[in-house]
Amino acid sequence: MSTSTPPPLADVAASDGTLRRFLHGLPGVDPVGLEARAAALGTRSIKTTAKAYAIDLAISMIDLTTLEGADTPGKVRSLAAKALRPEPSDRATPATAAVCVYPDMAATARAALGDSGVKVASVATAFPAGRAALDVKLADVRSAVAAGADEIDMVIDRGAFLAGDYLKVYEEIRAVRAECDGQARLKVIFETGELSTYDNIRRASWLGMIAGADFIKTSTGKVGTNATPANTLLMLEAVRDFRAATGVQIGVKPAGGIRTTKDAIKYLVLVNETAGPDWLDNHWFRFGASSLLNDLLMQRQKLRTGRYSGPDYVTVD
Q: Which domain holds residue 129?
């Protein structure tokens, strides 16, 4: 499916004025209603067979992530091995969607994953703060793509966005997309915890999609407030409405703070009930998480054997 901006929205970014009028013309968000709907969907329960399916689906949607200053090639290779075979004793366990690393570790991840189908995702554009000149950000992207990254997770300039300089944010996303040059899918991170309002999250979602994002992503995982059911629900509504308006499907990636199987299933319910089953696939929905995988594996084993394993059942990340 094409990810280029189609004719109905082609002239929105013609100028700062037209972009501003479009974004501020979006319907306002009812915070109480949004949070109530997210909470209500979170109470849905599913039966055992559906739970087994949901656990495997969630595992296949994880971007297994290490983004620390102390990352080493050995740690990245270990993470890649876990992504490929999350539960070595059970070959039926699906692989994760991707391994997400800094650009300087992308080549190590690429070598470890080979042509397995597990993607190499790389953060870029001066992650997590995004406080760098555009040429530095683009060099970051070029480095990751050249090293074999299949996906680029970029951060927007939140300062520019909050100052109302939407055209600058749009042009940076377009420039990063050009550096991906058809070789890597682009995930655009908003850092929703810094955008302050749901209206801003809705505007950022549409701005990212108009600019050419393949995915819109909640957070870096590096601030106090990351993914929540409410902000993810809002972004799911945005991608649903964008496809209805344009025919272009965009993915969603909540990241940060999703740690348990119960949490993951709540998010899958949000996806199904809001965007629809077309998004229940790791090409269109991801979890930015690492500790989540361990809990999914333990719950999966409980369903299979009727008992929980000891604390050494899963690897420590």
A: 9-305
